[in-house]
Structures are given as structure tokens and as C-alpha cells.
Amino acid sequence: MPISERRSAGVPSELRERNLKTIIDVVFRYQPISRTKISNLTGISKPTISKLVGFLIKEGYLVSAGKTSSGLGKRQELLSFNPGKAFVISVDVGLA
What we know:
By secondary structure, the protein is α+β, with helices and mostly antiparallel strands. The protein has a domain at 31-82: Arc Repressor Mutant, subunit A, CATH 1.10.10. The protein is built from three helices and three strands. Strands 1-3-2 form a three-stranded antiparallel sheet. Helix 2 packs across helix 3 (46-58). It starts with 11 loop residues before the first helix and ends in a 15-residue tail after the last strand.
């Protein structure tokens, strides 16, 4: 099941935020990864992936990690986190 199917739709700003979080999670788990693979894993449309990945690249969070080396057709750009950009990761372990 695509990761995004676990989430329900909401207002546009909340949906954008959830989609960004989903993309960040998938890139973190599977980097380097192509936009197509992100779309396949999340169920988020390719145009939305391109727009949000473009935003993350512009903000310096994602960088190009080369191109795919095998397969037929156009070589796809692979994406990874920018090692020079700081990240904060939090985990809710359910303890209160």
C-alpha cells in the first residue's frame, strides 16, 4: 500500500504539509531515489512530486545524487538529502 494511502485528505495547506513529510520520509529511507520511485512508493501524483521536490531542492534540502545507470529509456535523476543542510528528526514513542 502506498504510504500516502494511510492519510486522509484535508485542507490544501495540510495536504501539502503531509505530502512534504511523506516525501522526506521516503527519501530518507530509500536515498538515492528518483521522483518516479517516490511517486510509486507514496501514491502521490508525479506533478505533485515534481513541484514539492523542486521546492525541497530550491530550499537546499535535497540535491542531485547522479542518474540511474541501468534500464531502458531516459536516465532518471536520483535525489538525496543535502549533507550540508541541518535536519531535526523527532520520534513520538507514545510515553506521556
